[in-house]
Design a protein that fits this description.
Mean pLDDT: 65
Low-confidence stretches: none
Structural class: mainly alpha
Largest sheet: none
Radius of gyration: 39 Å
Order of helices and strands: HHHH
Length: about 110
């Protein structure tokens, strides 16, 4: 019975040892420091693109005439568009047809 307990506890230990050896072999072969440094840039594409714009594209935001991080001082233009004129009758109190006039006269007199 103790033999089964010992064999049962060896299986998880051997699995851990195999996992450790895989990780050790991956990082300890060649250029392990570069692999670790590259992993820090995963999912940071936006920051990398910003750095590239600063260095190579000579963007307006980071041009030589501007201070570091200064934005353009252009005032924002108003995006408000006035509504079109409403199509109302010339006088809202006057009836539009004679039938409406007769009905109003009968009801309100």
């Amino acid at each position: 019975m103790t033999l089964f307990v010992v064999l049962g506890s060896l299986s998880p230990a051997s699995t851990r040892l195999q996992n450790y050896q895989r990780i050790h072999n991956y990082y300890c072969q060649d250029k392990w420091s570069q692999k670790l440094k590259f992993k820090t840039y995963i999912n940071k594409e936006k920051g990398t693109q910003e750095i590239v714009k600063r260095l190579f594209d000579n963007s307006k935001k980071y041009g030589t005439s501007n201070t570091v991080g200064a934005k353009n001082q252009n005032p924002n233009k108003s995006k408000h568009v006035p509504l079109p004129p409403a199509d109302f009758p010339s006088s809202p109190s006057s009836p539009s047809t004679e039938a409406d006039h007769c009905i109003r006269k009968c009801l309100f007199s």
